[in-house]
Amino acid sequence: MTAQDRSTALRRTAEMAALFMIGDGLLGLAQPRRHVDLWRSRSAAVDALVRPFAGKPGRRRLYGAVQLAAGLALAARLRPPR
């Protein structure tokens, strides 16, 4: 794999992370209760991620706004290889 291929792969991975953050942030803003309830789990590791937002839609909305802003900022920094 060439340096340019690695660079492209890294940019694509960052783009996927940005897409996830933007989408998850929007869902958290628009439907915080439904989104948190969907991700509640008997798996302790998964549930630990959403437990702080259970019953706190305002907190989930705030986190969604932060995710959305961070995802957009990340995506804005990505440039195609030259």
Please, could you describe this protein's structure?
This protein is mainly alpha-helical. It has one domain (3-77). It is 78% helix and 0% strand. The chain is built from four helices and no strands. The protein has helices at residues 3-30, 32-39, 44-50, 57-77. α1 crosses α2 (32-39) and α1 (3-30) runs antiparallel to α4. It is elongated. It comes from Sphingomonas morindae. This is Cobalamin biosynthesis protein.
Q: Give the N-terminus to C-terminus distance in angstroms.
A: 17 Å
Rg of Cα set: 16 Å
Largest sheet: none
Morphology: elongated
In round numbers, the mean pLDDT is 94
Order of helices and strands: HHHH
* Protein structure class: mainly alpha
Query: How many separate helices?
Result: 4
Low-confidence stretches: none
Helix content: over 70%
The number of domains = 1
* Proportion of strand residues: under 5%
Counted beta strands: 0
Protein name: Cobalamin biosynthesis protein
